[in-house]
Amino acid sequence: MKKKTGKIVLLSLALAATLLISFGAPLGIPTWDDVFSIFSPVPVMEEDGLYVHFLDVGCADSAYITCNGYHVLIDAGNPSMQETAAYYLRQCGVKKLDLVIASHPDKDHIGDMPSVLQRLQVLRFWMPDIEEDLVPQADYYTDMLDAVDRQGIAMQNPKPGESLQLGQMQFTVLAPLKAYGSSNNNSLVIKLTYKNNSFLFTGDAEKQSEQDILESGADVHADVLKVGHHGSKSSSTKTFLQAVSPQYAVISVGDNSYGLPKRTVIRRMEKQNIQVYRTDVYGTIVFYSDGNTVTPLTAA
To answer: What homologous superfamily is domain 47-296 in, according to CATH?
Structure first.
């Protein structure tokens, strides 16, 4: 009898707490958003400057960038993941994105993009030109394009050399430099520059695209490199890593049957004294830049 009474008391207390949190805002009682923020994995962003979040979305890609009131998303991961890009942005309190970039149309990069485009106000949308035989015959892709159309979002297929200035951030397109007949090599490669710091986002670009970028004479040096293709040995050649010469490298990866990231790629970076961060080890990884120094907010 005592056990039953105890359960009733606990349930009554839980119900009372639920009602207070749900309807007690006028009385100064914390709301559900306040409660969730306490347990949120999102770091507190109090200082002015640049924050780059590499989301833990499994063996997929998504990066959220914010700087002095501007918000950008590069790729959106896979909707099958528990922590999706759309969920993370909600946790950050983001309601508007000044720029969304789909590096290329693979599901692990744009699978959750329809959800993002439907839930947030998006001002600009970038994606590469896609050869007809590389267009995915899949709902996630058509849903993404439908969302762009329905929301009246300005869509662009930017070319190498084109750039966009958002406050003190500059986003410059470095690739693809030609049609490759490969979805991975057709990835948009984007360099983000903020004052004296820079980040390089390579999508799934492989060694052929990397070589063409170097031969184009583009400035690829960056403080932080988002490692291409989840640490596959088809990307991140020794020559490319030497040219980028990053202080930090981020590998967005999770459980997979491909053995990613490849040990050979890790060794290449270790030989160049590049500090490697992996989302499968550290979870979501956040970097902060004051314009002169890049600081990882994730403990290594």
So the answer is: Ribonuclease Z/Hydroxyacylglutathione hydrolase-like (3.60.15.10)
